[in-house]
Amino acid sequence: MANIRDIAKYADVSVTTVSRVINDHPYVSKEKRDRVHAAMKELGYLRNQQALTLSTGKTQRVVVILPYMDHPYYSFFVDGIAKAALENQYRIVIWQTEYKLSEEQQALDLLKHREVDAAIILSHEMSFKEMVSYRAYGPIAVATVGAPKGISSIHVDHYASFVSGIHVLQQHGYEEIGIILSRSHSPSSLARQQAYFDEVASAREQWIWTGYLTSEDGIRLADEFLSQKERPRALFFSSDYVALGFLGEMQRRQLPIPETVAILGFDGNPIGKAFGLSTMLSPNETIGRQLFETALAEMQGASPQTTAMTVMYQTGTTL
Amino acid sequence: MANIRDIAKYADVSVTTVSRVINDHPYVSKEKRDRVHAAMKELGYLRNQQALTLSTGKTQRVVVILPYMDHPYYSFFVDGIAKAALENQYRIVIWQTEYKLSEEQQALDLLKHREVDAAIILSHEMSFKEMVSYRAYGPIAVATVGAPKGISSIHVDHYASFVSGIHVLQQHGYEEIGIILSRSHSPSSLARQQAYFDEVASAREQWIWTGYLTSEDGIRLADEFLSQKERPRALFFSSDYVALGFLGEMQRRQLPIPETVAILGFDGNPIGKAFGLSTMLSPNETIGRQLFETALAEMQGASPQTTAMTVMYQTGTTL
DNA sequence: TTGTACGCGTTATCAC
DNA sequence: GTGATAACGCGTACAA
Predict the structure, then answer these.
(1) Phi, psi at residue A88, to the nearest 5°?
(2) Does the structure show a pLDDT above 80 at B319?
């Protein structure tokens, strides 16, 4: 609990000198430097981060805003963010929103109240218009598409990615394709629908299933899918977990894949490999890293930037 | 950027009065209260959290220390912690250690440097002896077994849980049982081995596989398992993800489950349901909640406590 | 009911 | 090289 003043008194120097020693500044005689070090050791000095933070105005913290902690999709982003943050002596504060606007607002209020230096948003309900109003209080980097000037974005180009996924399906001979989306009105879902209608000749509304986020949703999809009279020959998912739920349920019903219907996932979650899931590999950990690095650069004066990432086909046995 | 003094000046009152208004204290005339509110609105006042923190000595933050963000096992704990924390106006800081002692030390240093009020540790390499040396700087709650006095613990009783899992296997007629562990020297692995030798008559060293953490490890296990001349009739895993990796690989090789070998998982990860995995359901989200609540109680003066949780058999088709 | 003055622990400024 | 002293923005005795 000894503070900088106690050290100064004990070493018989000024607090300024102690501060200089702590921060490795020049212009301190070796003799006093040694005395200060000895005093710090003797009294068990520990620098109080809160005081530093108030004094410098920098918190060395970034808030990461995401809807669900327990959805494995997000953990890869967070992993990348966490690694980049730790390497740069930053801490990350996690805020789980469950897509509630009020939670997103509270999380961004951390920026206003100088509790964090920047915000990284993985998915959001909030409009970009509202988000921009927080920009004055610190850099904001998002993993979603459509960010306006002022807000950095490192994201998967969902339109291009879905197009290339559809091409993979078509190269495998599938023309009648259905797609499985998460939230119907999210920008990524809209981009995916657009790609679907642009690239699939037989595209139809009934072959778009929306509201599927978890593996349980995937299980539930089996009934919805099988109950249709006219069914597509292939399903392109927007999440590996949903795809795996569906795949497992089809296996349980002894319906062979891809004979009954081909399955193409999206993400590249390692667990998919165990079940031979064909999928579009998304570089989510890299995106996480870059989100932090972009935010860091902005804190140091750089301009906001937008980067679109692409996905890669990862072969499996479900096509 | 207006601070409490600016408000005071603008409303023509003292800073104390402004502080009282902010914190809803009594003894402020309605008239001045209104003036202060008006001034705050006019100047766009936002309370600086860093200053509050330095002044009160409380950060309203808790650090959560865990080895891997991208291992889905931990996300359920974090989910529970996050929910409980947000309900109590606490923020959580995440520190990913990859089981590196130095990272664990750095994370606990946050406590020393008053950057957080308490620490929650989900899994650790550090000895409890060393951990205790940090206790002086704030409450510590762990999700592991064997915590000494002074350190709170909400954990799965791995010995009892493994015993009950083994009983489930035996009730299904399996006597020759093997077990799959993660890190060989972790307390939970030791408890599981003990349970194994205590309860399984045919227990043998060759039927203990250690070093399996991920689904990829589970895939790899298939070869190790099949190459043994004498094989157990059932495998009891310590993680659903490893079990699923193994299950998927066995399916790929067209080896029927449970005929080739029965599989019992451990965790109760939702994705297991899709593939009919029989497992021991562990209340990890609840444990997360209680970890936070215990830490909070300690911050408010309560004594450290230890609670052991039990797991429940969740039926599937792999036994 | 209100206000003055100080403490929280640090860094930054400026004079010596 | 060194050291007073003023910020940073808030809460809170204590006095009035």
Answers:
(1) -105, 20
(2) yes
